[in-house]
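Example (one chain per record):
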Amino acid sequence: MRCPLGDGNDLVFETVGTSEAFDALAAAGWDELVRAMPRPSPFLLHGWLAAWWRHEGDGAELAVQVARRDGRLVAALPLCVRRSNGLRVASFLGGVHSALADLLVASAEPASTQVALAERVSSVRCDLADLFGLPGHSRLAGACGARLRTVERVEAPVLDLTPGWDAVYRAKTDSKKRNLHKRRRRQLGELGELDVVRARTVDELDAALDEAFRLHELRWAGRPDGSGFVTPSGRRFNRDALRALAAQDLARIVLLRVDGRAVAFHYFLVFENRMYVYRLGFDPALGRLSPGLVNTLDALEWAGEEGVERVEYLGGGERYKLELSDRLEPLYQGLGLAATPQGHAVVGARLAAIHVRRRLKRSPALHRLYFDRLAPIRRAVARAKPGN
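Predicted structure:
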């Protein structure tokens, strides 16, 4: 569907609703819009989103909003629509994997373009929008104003790596901490021959991803895991997405091995001189020796050698991340743009549920109830969902 702006500036809007039309946006300059983001996200690159749509898009409808000026792609908003409890819910293409998702706008475009594109959300046939992964100072949130409520969801620590890894590591740790890290590495080495594998080519990454799947399953066995990393569709998506990003030399996996068997993995992306942590895990049987932390240090060292200037951890504020970061730059969930009374009611209910979960997180007793006693019920529900 095309909709000229009608003010003589040759800006034309379109809703992209087919896989073929979305595929065509790769050659139209989609990735250049991603690179122009204030906080560029590799999880919005066309190859990543196309892989997600192929493997995780069942039951959804594409509703990608784009703007062209004189035929050239100048702005985009990657959306899809799913039915949930009888309602049509708009979300970012990429779902929970859409960290830092936002409006994509060419650097030379005026602010009016992003405002006009944000208004296009109202043309999407849905009851409400549930948009996870927004950065702070989001273009979309700013353009939508009070119609879109944003709630902080992920702490997302960041680290300035411009001085180089060695200098940053010494500044962030004292001699006691560094000695502990050396001791852990030595203790792991006492179990067998210790080596670090850096996977970067397609073949290397394919093999390393198999190890990552195995370690992730070990790490989360018997515990709630909402990542979808090792579900059947999640495995297909991650394999496909990794190959797409490897073709652009963006994907890295570091394995820590003992006697040739991986005991930890760290999967990250290098994009626009930044390191984006995607997945990491370790063998819980060796948890007391901190193989995950040792492997993270190896990954940060590799990133520093490549000239990476900033680390985006993207996940929660675990202690090891906070020790090796400068500040938090949280990710947000946007709820709103409700078009129906039912949509308004759901927005209110979801905002209330988020506040309840925050209380669970702050209370040790409630946290144990949620993660331990209720875990079997949640896993049974997750297994019953289609595609799992």
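Caption: The mean pLDDT is 91.
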